[in-house]
Amino acid sequence: MSTIVASDEVRARVDRALRGKRTDVPGRVFSTVLLLTLLASLAVLGVLLWTTVDEALPVFRERGWDFVTSDTSSLASRAGVYQGLVGSIILIGFVAVIALPAGIAAAVYLEEYARDTKLNRILITNIRNLAGVPSIVYGILGLVGFVQTLRGVTGPGGGQLGLSYVSGGATLAVLVMPIVILVTMEALRAVPRSIREGAYGVGATRWEMVRSHVLPYAAPGIFTGAILALARAFGETAPLLLVGATTGFFSNPSGQNALEVLQGFYTALPTLVYSWSRLPRGDWGPNVSAAIIVLLVTILIVNAVAILLRNRYERKW
Amino acid sequence: MAVDTTLTFADLRGDARRRRREALVRWLLRGAAVFSLVVSVAIVLALVGEAFRWLTGIDLAWLVGDGWFPRRSEFDVLTLVAGTMIVSAIAIAVAAPLGLGAAVYLSEFASPRIRRILKPMLEVLAGIPSVVLGYFALTVIQPSIVQDVFGGTSAFSLMAAGIGVGILTIPLVASVSEDAMHAVPDALREAAYGIGARRRTVAMQVVVPASVSGIVAALILGLSRAIGETMVVAIAAGATGGGLRTLNPLGPGQTMTGAISSLAIGSDQVQGSTFAFDSLFFVGLLLFVMTFGLNVISERFVRRVRRSY
Q1: What does residue A3 show for φ and ψ, rounded to 5 degrees?
Q2: A97 contact partners, CB below 8 Å, separation of at least 6
Q3: Could you tell me the sign of the dihedral formed by the alpha carbons of B62, B67, B73, B77, in that order?
Q4: Closest Cα to residue A271, out of B234, B269, B256?
Q5: Do B136 and A51 lie within an 8 Å CB cutoff?
Q6: Residue A256: CB atoms within 10 Å
């Protein structure tokens, strides 16, 4: 029996081929470039935050809470965001009261009740398309629908133009409803079948099954989605320009009742950012940046609440 | 032993009150779902109705001219479309490489730990309101990129607006295309690794081609978002009172969304003149048709991804 002995050269070559090149230089370069594209986007975020804080700092240092608690004014040194902050919170209240129940209800119908009929398929496609309609188009809808057609309900005294909280809030509610529906459907879809069968097994009707089993299980997902939708509405500016958020200066008349307030003039925090950004930058720049900080901090708080709620209600099954 | 009750059909149907409640809830839920259809019909009716009323009122020759000056009854729509195209082209040129690069990295290269850190940061970027990006475009991008790098001279420019819109679009492009790459089955990756492919080869020659429909969908969705973006353009592009038709990205210009917003806030002092103000319905209809068309196309691409795996 003879053995074949490989020469040293063959051994070395086979060895090298098996081990491959230690470092794949082009591969490293490639993955580094990809990482850089991601970091570039985050760097923009960093620069944005840094320049804003940098410009806003003097305002907060000199005026402190006064900036947050002052009304709008034609004097940069007196103007504050109070009306905008209150306005935004009232608008968000509208959105929460209208869009959340309606959106969650629609999602429950589409996910738990609807059979695969043509109408239901049209509904789902339609909702998906509505979520992609530019926000300013919703503003036009609000202008025609709420401000002009329904001015008797939305305007003061039923006569004047309905440039009011009611119009603004309803417009924003219609705007975020498709988003609420889509995230809720996603959350419902994640509920395992066995949970539904458990409820049916003890004789529950469909609604009893949904209320006692599916909704509690999907609650964390629905919460998160709903609050993200509210945050989106909070930062939305374009539709409010059409449904009459005031871009100038105004003072709230005293002694109004709640309905008169809701049918009266209003502004919102992002609207203030926009209208101040059109004024001479030397005087108003620091105010714009400070208002942006208030806006971002509020959105951050809203998001943090969303995460806390999700963690609190998250259940293990 | 005799049975003293017989089981009737009524017993099987259960409690009448419970059944009534069930039917009521069903109708309420259904009503909420149908409401969304009502909203979209209302959007279409509002836009088409008002746009038609405007079109029949004006002299159609006003639609062609040198520029968009609603106060002077010059409604050259092409000016707005050109402005929108320039802004969205720049936006996509920014968002496509950055968004897709980030998506490939997060999906194929990042370790789970890095992913857990970087992905939420990208989501923070997605949550920044567009007014904020608008002010950033005006005060940072315009002086330090458009003026210093490209030599622009004016205070406003379509390019600054385009870059701002692009930054807003990055998270959308990244997340939609990453979802598509995530949907590629691991078996495909493993097959490639099994015959000795490297990570880069797997990413570029297996995962990216397999998820190409999703990537195209992400880009179309990004384009649609860029066309409809309003606040960045309203703040950073200038030309609030109207503008001449221009193809120069370094100068100020007007887009469809910018025109609607400046008509709405009355910076043209036009609210008294019906023709000027009501032109926003026509522009709005045009905007709606364009973005709606793009969304439908993108939806079709996404469905193709879903069907293949």
Answers
A1: -105, 145
A2: none
A3: positive
A4: B234
A5: yes
A6: 13
Contact A240, A143 (CB under 8 A): no
Non-local (6+) Cβ contacts of B255 within 8 A are B80, B83, B84, B87, B158, B161, B233, B237
Q: End-to-end alpha-carbon separation of chain A, Å?
A: 67
Q: What is the DSSP string of B79-121?
A: HHHHHHHHHHHHHHHHHHHHHHHHHHIIIII--HHHHHHHHHH
Sign of torsion over alpha carbons A74, A78, A79, A83 = negative
Rounded CA-CA distance A209/A196 in Å is 6
Could you tell me how many CB contacts below 8 A there are between chain A and chain B? Answer: 244
- Tokens 């009150």 belong to which residue? B17
- Rg over alpha carbons for chain B, rounded to the nearest Å, is 26
Question: Any residues with CB less than 8 A from the CB of A17 and at least 6 apart, and which?
Answer: none
Give me the phi and psi of A84, to 5 degrees please. -65, -45
A123 touching chain B per CB within 8 A: yes
Nearest to A262 by CA among A147, A116, A156: A156
Q: Is the dihedral of CA A143, A146, A148, A154 positive or negative?
A: negative
Q: Is B139 on the interface with A (CB under 8 A)?
A: yes
| B287·A288 Cβ contact <8 A | no
Name A194's Cβ contacts closer than 8 Å, sequence gap at least 6: none
Closest to B274 (Cα-Cα) out of B56, B44, B66: B56
Rounded CA-CA distance A275/A291 in Å is 11
Shortest CA distance from B280: residue in chain A: A140
**Is pLDDT above 50 for B255?**
yes
Task: Tell me the per-residue pLDDT of A66-83, one tens digit each, with 9 for 90 and over.
Answer: 888 777 777 777 778 888
Tokens of A302: 């809203």
**Which tens digit of pLDDT belongs to each residue from A99-157?**
999 999 999 999 999 888 888 888 888 898 888 889 999 998 888 888 777 766 666 54
What's the gap between Cα A81 and its chain centre?
A: 21
Give the nearest partner residue to A141 out of B46, B296, B299, using CB atoms.
Answer: B46
- Rounded Cα–Cα distance for residues A74 and B217 (Å): 47
How much is the average pLDDT of B82-97?
A: 94
pTM: 0.85
CB B182 within 8 A of CB B261: no
Rounded Cα distance between A192 and A21, Å, is: 48
